[in-house]
């Protein structure tokens, strides 16, 4: 086994998919052409069978150091190799747009540069289509080489001759200072032109791509503290959007484990209503209205479709499909032996009542900051809320998607309250038709239900689910959605209990394993980064600014060298779970914006 | 297809090699492997053979010089250019290498002109007599193909030619 730490990867993408690039210059994860397509490179999930594309400086003697950075304000990644022989770089990116006379292609461009001394570089490209399940041929081509499987074809275009080695290709070449070599991996489509030179193509694409990202980020309105981290999180969130539909994936990977060697390995390459709604909030906080508009358009299309568990499904494919059939890829080793590797997600059919609150909160914000909602959208909302009024009092799988049995989760009830509350506010704001009395009565019933059944007097805290004594970090969001004052004694009691029982070295576990409703699986898990950022917000709103700031700044040290986060952080600071994760980066943005505001100017 | 050669005892080369563990081999295969590539019926394999010898460099010795010199007469112009560039790496004193590269600058195929300019740019002032290519490179700044123009421009910069077009780029 030869696996790199999850946090050693940078990410590039083209708003259709991404690639993970290790600090050693190896692309170990990429699904093409879309996020949820079968993989082309997946050695992060099986170092022998998964496939990779590596370009790195060869260092026959002495120590070699690797570093990575992004070109400022972009998602163009630079991997650097430093040794006694010299210094070289590999610039990686996926072009967003095509040249005016071309058709949309999906490609990875890798520009190798000599900086100091003469360095030898080695290229090794070994695709493994469809998670290593589909064999392929390799054939030399005047432009480089062509990899072809049953219904998919890729060219690796190279000025330097490539040598076929088994199912892949190899090449070595020397670069002196100021010399460069460009390699383009491109999906072959009919009608594409023949010979062309990679230098011009690559330079033009690099220029367009840098311009795109800088222009996009220039619309960010945030001017506060930690701006570079907020910008990097915004750039990551944008990378996780699927441009053709406006959908936002939870993460672009599958099966990166929540525990090394464990079984909590899930496919996140889909759109969770919850995650996407929170992400819309983050985009709006930073002034990115178009992303919110596109997501709302995608979401609106779901309103009329219905689902087995209610008006909405908890997650969909990026194209809006409902069926996300889960299967195990038993032939793959899994990241550091973490099996099984799964594609698809069986949680799609779970009942998670909280999604209606997250949807309504994002619709409310959209209406406030972007466009007034249409009457047709309002009728769908009313219909959804009618269903919610009939069903909010059911047990469900909750935000953590437990597979160990449904419960009356407090977080679910909380978000049901949010759903009805935002509906009432929208109706009042625009004088929209609504049975106000019925909605207010039901909203208040939920409120009292939480205060009665979701509260444990002995522990002086809200609990995870009715009848439980365990605490859950999800309840940190209570003041953030204006359910309760951040300084209400009940909220302060809950806050203190969470800090006491679920926080270790400033990092927050979502619940206590073995004490609370569990996900039905054995093993441990890391701390949830999203929960840590929620703690920061809850503390800052409670006026405990020193604590909030300390935890926030400590949390920033858990980002990787590029400012990226996975879903979880392990006890020794390692990244765990799928990566990078939208939910976490959304949490960072929200925490930074709110903490900065409360610290005020000059603090 | 190149027939599999008998198992190669890397220790033999280690005894002859310099301190550089990359000497005498390319992609972990010895020079003899790549010399046979220069005789392959497929020009793409011949191109690869030339490149391999270029990377191995002067360590390839007289065997490489002889094989690459013969390849300067290849039926394919782009193979001739690759062979010339490799020969220049192996033994820069070989005048025919420069002559073949200069001939490539005037090839009717734009990708060969671009390739020749690119190779001259990579060799730069280390190639004795490279100044002789400057007039043709200057003409290529007006070539109809953008790739040819940009490679000519870069080559002229590398050779450190003082020209307005090169100066202002």
Write the layout of secondary structure elements.
The complex is a heterodimer of chains A (603) and B (169).
Chain A: E1 9-13, E2 18-22, E3 26-31, E4 39-41, E5 52-57, E6 65-70, E7 77-83, E8 86-93, E9 107-116, E10 119-126, H1 129-132, E11 137-141, E12 144-149, E13 152-158, E14 163-165, E15 168-175, E16 180-187, H2 198-217, H3 227-239, E17 241-242, E18 247-248, E19 271-272, H4 273-285, H5 289-303, E20 315-316, E21 327-329, E22 341-343, H6 355-369, H7 375-391, H8 410-430, H9 436-453, E23 455-456, E24 461-462, H10 489-502, E25 503-504, E26 507-508, E27 527-528, H11 529-541, H12 545-556, E28 568-569, E29 575-576, H13 582-599
Antiparallel strand pairs in A: 1-2, 2-3, 3-4, 3-5, 5-10, 6-7, 7-8, 8-9, 9-16, 10-15, 11-12, 12-13, 13-16, 14-15, 17-18, 19-20, 21-22, 23-24, 25-26, 27-28, 28-29
Helix pairs in contact in A: 3-13, 4-5, 4-6, 4-13, 6-8, 7-8, 8-9, 11-12, 11-13, 12-13
Chain B: H1 10-16, E1 25-26, E2 29-30, H2 31-37, H3 43-56, H4 61-71, H5 77-90, H6 95-104, H7 110-123, H8 134-140, H9 146-158, H10 164-167
Antiparallel strand pairs in B: 1-2
């Amino acid at each position: 086994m030869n696996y790199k730490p999850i946090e050693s990867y940078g990410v590039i993408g083209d708003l259709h998919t991404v690639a993970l690039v290790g600090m050693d210059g190896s692309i170990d994860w990429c699904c093409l052409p879309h996020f949820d397509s079968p993989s082309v490179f997946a050695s992060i999930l099986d170092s022998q069978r998964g496939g990779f594309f590596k370009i790195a400086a060869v260092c026959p003697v002495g120590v070699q150091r690797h570093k990575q950075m992004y070109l400022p304000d972009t998602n163009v990644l630079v991997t650097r190799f430093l040794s006694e022989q010299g210094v070289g770089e590999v610039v990686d990116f996926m072009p967003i747009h095509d040249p005016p006379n071309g058709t949309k292609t999906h490609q990875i461009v890798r520009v190798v540069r000599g900086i100091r001394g003469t360095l030898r570089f080695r290229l090794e490209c070994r695709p493994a289509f469809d998670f290593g399940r589909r064999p392929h041929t390799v054939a030399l081509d005047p432009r480089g080489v062509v990899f072809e499987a049953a219904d998919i074809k890729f060219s690796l275009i190279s000025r330097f001759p490539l040598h076929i080695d088994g199912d892949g290709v190899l090449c070595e070449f020397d670069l002196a200072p100021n010399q460069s070599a460009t390699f383009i991996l491109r999906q072959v489509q009919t009608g594409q032109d023949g010979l062309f030179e990679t230098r011009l193509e690559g330079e033009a694409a690099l220029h367009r791509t840098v311009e795109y990202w800088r222009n996009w980020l220039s619309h960010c309105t945030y001017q506060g503290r930690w701006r570079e981290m907020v910008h990097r999180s915004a750039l990551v969130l944008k990378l996780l959007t699927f441009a053709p539909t406006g959908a936002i994936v939870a993460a672009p990977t599958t099966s990166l484990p929540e525990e090394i060697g464990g079984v909590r390995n899930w496919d996140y390459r889909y759109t969770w209503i919850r995650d996407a709604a929170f992400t819309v909030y983050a985009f709006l906080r930073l002034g990115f209205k178009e992303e919110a508009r596109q997501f709302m358009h995608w979401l609106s299309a779901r309103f009329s479709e219905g689902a087995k568990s209610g008006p909405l499904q908890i997650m969909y494919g990026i194209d809006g499909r409902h069926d996300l059939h889960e299967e195990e890829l038993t032939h793959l080793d899994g990241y550091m032996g973490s099996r099984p590797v799964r594609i698809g997600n069986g949680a799609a059919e779970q009942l998670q009542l909280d999604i209606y609150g997250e949807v309504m909160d994002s619709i409310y914000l959209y209406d406030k900051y972007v466009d007034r909602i249409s009457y047709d959208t309002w009728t769908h909302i009313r219909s959804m809320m009618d269903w919610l009024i009939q069903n909010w009092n059911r047990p469900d799988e909750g935000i953590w998607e437990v597979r160990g049995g449904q419960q009356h989760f407090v977080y679910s009830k909380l978000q049901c309250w949010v759903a009805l509350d935002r509906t009432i506010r929208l109706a009042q704001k625009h004088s929209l038709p609504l049975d106000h009395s019925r909605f207010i009565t039901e909203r208040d019933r939920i409120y009292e239900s939480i205060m009665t059944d979701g509260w444990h007097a002995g522990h002086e805290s809200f609990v995870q689910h009715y009848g439980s004594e365990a605490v859950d970090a999800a309840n940190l969001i209570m003041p953030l959605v204006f359910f309760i004052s951040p300084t209400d004694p009940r909220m302060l009691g809950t806050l203190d209990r969470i800090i006491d029982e679920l926080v270790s070295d400033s990092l927050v576990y979502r619940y206590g394993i073995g004490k609370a409703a569990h996900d039905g699986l054995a093993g441990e898990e890391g701390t949830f980064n999203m929960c840590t950022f929620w703690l920061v917000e809850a503390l800052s709103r409670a006026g405990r600014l020193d604590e909030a700031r300390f935890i926030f700044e400590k949390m920033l040290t858990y980002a990787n060298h590029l400012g990226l986060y996975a879903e979880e952080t392990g006890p020794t600071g390692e990244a765990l779970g799928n990566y990078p994760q939208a939910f976490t980066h959304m949490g960072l943005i929200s925490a930074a914006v709110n903490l900065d505001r409360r610290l005020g100017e000059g603090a | 297809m190149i027939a599999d050669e008998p198992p190669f005892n890397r220790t033999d080369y280690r005894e002859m090699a310099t301190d550089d563990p990359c000497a005498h081999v390319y992609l972990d295969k010895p020079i003899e492997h790549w010399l046979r590539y220069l005789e392959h019926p497929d020009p793409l394999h011949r191109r690869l053979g030339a490149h391999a010898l270029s990377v191995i460099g002067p360590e390839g010795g007289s065997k490489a010089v002889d094989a690459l010199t013969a390849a300067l007469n290849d039926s394919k112009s782009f193979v001739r250019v690759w062979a010339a560039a490799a020969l220049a790496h192996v033994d820069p004193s070989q005048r025919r290498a420069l002559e073949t590269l200069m001939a490539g600058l005037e090839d009717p195929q734009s990708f060969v002109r671009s390739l020749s300019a690119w190779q001259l740019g990579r060799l730069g002032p280390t190639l004795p007599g490279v100044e002789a290519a400057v007039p043709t490179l200057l003409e290529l700044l007006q070539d109809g193909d953008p790739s040819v123009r940009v490679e000519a421009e870069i080559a002229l910069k590398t050779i450190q030619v003082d020209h307005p077009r090169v100066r202002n780029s």
